Amino acid sequence: MASVTDIEDFLQGPLVTWLRACLDNSERLTDYEDLADGVVIYEVLLLIDPEPMYHGVIPSLGNPLQRIRNFDCIIKNIKTLYEEELCQLVVLLPDSVRLGKEPESKAGLEDMQLLLLLLLGCAVQCPNKQRFIEHIKTLSVEAQHCIVHCIKQVTESQEIVLCGDHEKSLSQEQMFTHIQHLIKERDKYLQVWIGQEDRKCAGVVMGNERLNATTPSGGERGESQHLAVELADWKARLRKQRQELEEKSEALAETKEELEHNKILVAKLRNEMQDLKQQARASKAYRDEVDALRERAERCEKLEGEITRYRDKLCDMEFYKSRVEELRQDNRVLEETREMLEEQLARARKRGDHIIQLEASILQYKQTINDLVLERDANQEKLQQLYEENSQLTILSKSQLNNSAYESDHLEDTDTGSGDNSLSEQLTSNAQARALRLELENRRLASTVESLQEAALQHTNEQILELEKEKKKLSLQVDDLEENKRKLMQHNTELETSVKNAQRDTKKMQELLETLQHQLQIQSESLSRDKQRLERRVQELEASLDVAKAQADRLGELEDAKSKIASLERDVGKLKESLEAKSEMLEKLTCEVEMNSKEKLDLTKNLEEANIQIVRYHEREREFKDLESRYAIDHKTLSVLQKDLVAEKLNTQQLKSSLDKLGLPVDKLSDPDNALDTILSRPEILKMVRQRLSLDETTKCDLSHLNECNARLEVNISTLQSQISSLTSQLTALQLANSQLVAEKEEVIKELEKVQTDQVTLQALHEQLSVQYESQRNDKEFLKTTLRDLRIEHRNLKEANELLSSVNETLTADKDNLKDESKSLNNLRAEHSKLKDDFRSLFTSNEKLKKEYRALQEEYKSLRVESGKCKLSLTELNGELETRNDKITGLEVQVSKLTSQCEMLTQIKTSFEEDRRSLMEYVRQLLDQYHELLMHSLDDKEHYHAEEKMFRDKVNNLNRQKEKLEEKIMEHYFKLESCPAKKKSFGATLVKRMRKAGSELISKSRKSWHEDTARKGTDSDTSLEEVRSRQADGLSLGTPGTRRTVYYSGDENNSTTNDQDDSKSLPSETPRTSTPQHEPAGPPLLVYNRLTTVLGRNPTPPHSPALSQSSKKQSSNESKTGPNPVWFEYGCV
């Protein structure tokens, strides 16, 4: 036996602490007995493997046999886990017998430690290992280090468990220790087995001796003869078996010799086949090379097509990338919406939970309200009763006060008239006093009786109130029970329907089972027949094998046979798979049948429980009805008793009044002797007695009747008390019944646990049956495979002869083909050289394509990088765009302002155009005057000097006006520099066009002008030529604000043609070539300014009366319209 300290150290060790951490309730493992029971270890094993192979671990309750079974089941499950799931071999296993019988011994402690080590190894290597690792992490650091050391003992050191991966690394020392351990275990188990056999033999010998002592010698002789006969039979059978064995061994030796001979032949055939194969391989190699070259050429074409496809796909990839980014953004939006919806869902769930809690609290409050209403009704009833009692008591107190006053007055009267009265009067007075005392006592007794009755009535009323409360509570319970009854009825109907459906399913499954069993029987019978037939066939095949082996000379057959064997093996595998599928279907069907039967049993149990509850409910209803009937009877009896009490009070009052009339005091009548003496001493009383004897008889009858009534009342009171006690007993009985129901419920739970244990045992039986079924199925498959192998061998041997002959023919044909192929090979070699050259060229082109492809990939990568940069720049540009949009909005506001200003300017422009037209008309008038003056000057030489002065004045005035206008133009030009440059675009284009037109016109006008002046210069003097030159320079091309101005009307060609014609015909009409405005319906004038043009201002004309008037009008118009000139740089009007 191990010491207490050893057990405590083991319990405080790392393995037990880990086991406690794995349990849901660590307080379950407190003592070593809890560990030695095995239930706690099995629970942890169920966490490792929820569906173990072996079941049946039950609390042992100190039973060693149950402990042995528990530990045997646990050890078997651990072993199956290591062997099947972890593919490891357990070398050291704990002894389940020692753990069951002697758990507290040192060897038992070592076995327990080994068991926990193996369990820890399973937990660390199982699929649910993460859970156990988290449990280990919750422990202290020292415990974790110890557990790691324990895990290394199981997984790394190969003393307890052998891993499949470490077979080669296993050292000789470890192997030697394992072998020593196995030898020791073998010797130990041999000794145990020998001891058990000795005990059995000793028991058998003792039993035989006893039988020999009891049986006679004649019986022994008969038995010995019988045994001798059996011995002879067995010997004969042995001889036969030996002979069969010798025959079979001889047949085996012969077959071995034949096999060796066949092997030699096979080796020869293999050598020949190898030579042929080498030749065929060489030809195949050349063919393969040709095919490979052709395939490569095809591949090159395919590769070119693929390259074009990839180039097309590159464009698609960019589109797909943009699409993917859009989808990602949509996905982000959807995720955000999903999160929002999840938050809303969580809120809705919280609200739903809160609503459920509120509904539960509302139901509780409703129940409390019902209870309070009941209490209020009871309190109101009590108050009414107390009011009634109070009124009765006040009436009684008033009556008692009146009676006491009356008695005192009566006593005073008797005292005053006592001296005068005679002896008879004294007697009468004494009798009356006694009668009064008796009356007082009677009243006192009546009051006591009434008080008792009232107390009894109050008690009964209180009980009645309590009963009414109980009645209301019971009525509420009845309502609840009725609702439960309805629910149960509904549940019952549902269960009945489910039971019916389950019965139908079970019937169907039973029919299926029967059909499957019938099919299995048919199959087994057919298989047995096939087996017999195949055995016969095997014998025939063995005979044919001997013949076929002699004929099997070449290897081709065997190779064909091997290929066929492989195909047949595939068929066998397929058939095996189909058989396994069918067996799995059978197992599923059986499992479904078992599940349906279990469900049926559960449903029947539920039905029985429901029926029991319904019966109980009906019993409670009956009891409730009985209570109601009893309550009605009690109520009626109470009312009758109250009436009887009132009648008795009236009778007692009548008696008192009669005694008062007789003059007998009530106190004296209490003693019978004194009462007789007083009555006999008084003749008046005798007379009165005689007179009222008849009345006494009636009173006696009344008294007897009253006594009977009192007795009845007492009986009724006793019956009521008994009924109350019975009701209390019934209440206690109901409470007991409730407690019994609770106990029954616990018993039902225990029965359920028992049923579960039974289920576990049934599962174990089912597993055993399944194991048996698998073994039988394996036997069946083995027989099938043997039969198929025999059939295949027979077919192969039959076909062998045919194939050998065909092989010879094929070999000869192959020789001829090889000769032809050798010729074709030479041609193929030439083609091969050509194809090599083609291949090299294709290879170079392929390499170029690869390089191009790599370059494209690099370009693609760079493009990707650039696209990323572009995206970044796009984001930046988007930001800038937003800022620009803001600026654009501001500019739009400015544009709106500028448009309003433009409208104002257009109005000013229209006014300027009107001014321009008036100026043009004025200029025409001036030119007309100028031409008239010229003509006049040429015609009239006498008035030349006066005209010359006039012209000089005009020229001076015009020069002044020109200078003023130039100054104003320069001022406005400086102002226009501050304006935006947008206004120059349209004007600049027009200015370029007008420069060309103007330059041509100026050149033409200059030519014409010089020609005219040259013609006219012959007739004039030098002074006149100077005036003409000044006029030509100042007046013909001089307009306000310009150095040189051309007035152009219409097309250039017309003007030039007119100029030429006029210059040839008339010299006087030369100025009109440049400005042909003398026609009334001519085209609009065009003014070209070399520097700048001022519109909207009229020049000061010369001092003539007509011009002054027109100038005044124009100045007045200018004052009306206002100073709104429009300036154009190199502009045109």
Number of helices: 21
User: Which structural class do the helices and strands define?
Assistant: mainly alpha
Q: Kindly report the average pLDDT value.
A: 70
**Broad shape:** flat
Largest sheet: 2 strands, antiparallel
What is the share of helical residues? over 70%
Helix/strand order, N-terminal first? HHHHHEHHHHEHHHHHHHHHHEHEEHE
Strand residues, percent: under 5%
Radius of gyration: 70 Å
Domains, number: 4
Lateral arrangement of strands in the main beta sheet: 1-2
For the secondary structure, the number of strands is 6
Ends: how far apart? 135 Å
Low-pLDDT stretches: 213-219, 416-421, 980-988, 1005-1010, 1012-1133
Question: What's the short story on this structure?
Answer:
The protein is an all-alpha fold and 1133 residues long. The protein contains 21 helices and 6 strands. Helices cover 85% and strands 2% of the residues.
List the helices and strands and how they pair.
Elements: H1 4-11, H2 14-22, H3 32-37, H4 39-48, H5 64-85, E1 88-90, H6 96-101, H7 106-125, H8 129-137, H9 141-155, E2 161-163, H10 172-214, H11 217-416, H12 423-551, H13 555-662, H14 672-681, H15 683-691, H16 693-939, H17 944-977, H18 984-1016, H19 1022-1036, E3 1045-1049, H20 1052-1065, E4 1085-1089, E5 1092-1095, H21 1105-1121, E6 1126-1129
Antiparallel strand pairs: 1-2, 3-4, 5-6
Helix pairs in contact: 2-9, 4-5, 4-7, 5-7, 7-9, 11-12, 11-16, 12-13, 12-16, 13-16, 15-16, 16-21, 18-20
